[in-house]
Amino acid sequence: MSNNSRGLVRSMAIIGSSQSLNIVISIVRVKALAIMLGPLGVGLLGIYSNLLDMVKTAAGLGIGKSGVRQIAVAKQDEQVLGRVRRVVLLAHIIQGSLAMGAVWLFRFQISEWLFGNNTYENEVGLIGIAILLTLLGTAHTAILQGMRRIDDLGRVTIYSALVGSIVGLAAIWFYGVIGLVWFVIAQPLAVVVIAFQYTSRLPQLKENILNFSAFWQEWKPMAKLGTAFMLGGLATTITLLLVRRSITQEIGLEAAGLFAAAWSISMIYVGLMLGAVSADYYPRLAEVITDRKVATKLMNDQLQLLVSIGGPILLLLIGTAPWIMTLLYSSEFRSGSELLQWMTAGNVFKLASWPLAFSIVAASRSKTFFLMELSFNIIFLIFIWLLLPSLGLKSTAIALLIGYLVYFVIVIILATSLQGFYWESLSLVLVSMHIILALILLGLTLIYPYVGAIISIFIFFLTGLFGLRVVLTKIGLKGQMANYFHKFFNFIRWPI
Predict the structure, then answer these.
(1) For residue 415, what are the domain limits?
(2) pLDDT for res 454
(3) What is the pLDDT of residue 1?
(4) Is residue 432 situated within a structural domain?
């Protein structure tokens, strides 16, 4: 029984529940969008969102993530904590305002580069508003995360998703494709308004004068560490934008819509799991990273819990992708299901690598982190360029799988050599089992879709049962619910 495990499960449960509701809301939102605008609208939204991600990542300088670490470390010093919180907020306001102005100023050139014409010039310019709002929201959620206000962070996720979706869909309902830009703006606006309600309730700290010297003193180390986050994230968003641009210009905007749909489904679920991980695990790991033994134990605990909970659903998604694609979008998108299957298999490697990758971040190895993220994107792009002429749209998903496989190997090497990570036997069993099953299911479903779907459901229940047992064993569940589980496992002759 581990206190770490119990705390991690609680955090994952809170954030996971909020993210699950967010997924439900996202499903409804995307379904409505697909019905109203079709693949073209989904493709256009994907490009807008990618542009938003790219610019806000560059403008944010990674201070959202590095700020979480600084806040977590400074919690014992009220004066320093107050200063760090104020710097995080002010930095995002300044950087977001500059980014908004730059996007509006160069809207014509950006539209030409993305679409080959200036048809969407004004819409591109208005994305700048969403960038400023996104960075403001990042500042507020970073403060909540660094203070480990996990409950409040979960509420912000749910309420902002609900409000943003209602407002965004209303804009599309009234204005059609033109309303897509307001759809993009609505979500970060909701985050800012709602997150502010919770950050304003945090304990008031000692006021201290924040002159330029004091600002620079706090901002510089955050920016230094954050730059690695920024460059790593920027590499990913630029890569994704280049991929979508290539698809749009070489195959068409509807093909970009199919890619966006598969990508969205794949990343929504992975985002749920990794969001639950990063909310509490990252600041917790940052506090103990200098103690390699404790850090390794925490990394193994998180790896085991993450794969046990998240792995079975990924296996199910591989087999049922055609029906999931139709359900969440429409029959027009069913041809994109093969993309989803390849992407999901790749995400098994991503899921397994993420707890280890956080150790590089927590140890402030900024250059290493950047090179690690860059390696994935380079491999991803290279294989797309090699395979796109012969395999078409499918090449994007195959390249993603290959990229995450190589990324997984690199992360293991770095975590082992730099942070002294070693595999516990349970971690090795869980990761190996899910990787092997994912690759087998992928091959089977591509050849025999219906057989693969049936087997994936069967494997989902078996691995889910195994994962449940792992979680219960690690957290030492007590009470009436625990008795029910213990009786069940005794009944199937597999006692805990």
Answers:
(1) 3-491
(2) 93
(3) 44
(4) yes
> HEC profile for the chain?
CCHHHHHHHHHHHHHHHHHHHHHHHHHHHHHHHHHHHHHHHHHHHHHHHHHHHHHHHHHHCCHHHHHHHHHHHCCCCHHHHHHHHHHHHHHHHHHHHHHHHHHHHCHHHHHHHHHCCCCCHHHHHHHHHHHHHHHHHHHHHHHHHHCCCHHHHHHHHHHHHHHHHHHHHHHHHHHHHHHHHHHHHHHHHHHHHHHHHHHCCCCCCCCCCCCHHHHHHHHHHHHHHHHHHHHHHHHHHHHHHHHHHHHHHHCCHHHHHHHHHHHHHHHHHHHHHHHHHHHHHHHHHHHHCCCHHHHHHHHHHHHHHHHHHHHHHHHHHHHHHHHHHHHHCCHHHHHHHHHHHHHHHHHHHHHHHHHHHHHHHHCCCHHHHHHHHHHHHHHHHHHHHHHHHHHCCHHHHHHHHHHHHHHHHHHHHHHHHHHCCCCCHHHHHHHHHHHHHHHHHHHHHHHCHHHHHHHHHHHHHHHHHHHHHHHHHHHCCCCHHHHHHHHHHHHCCCCC
Predicted TM-score (pTM) of this structure: 0.72
Per the domain annotation, does 243 fall within a domain? yes
Residue 411 lies in a domain: yes
The count of structural domains within the chain is: 1
Residues of the chain with pLDDT under 50: 1
- 496 assigned to some structural domain: no
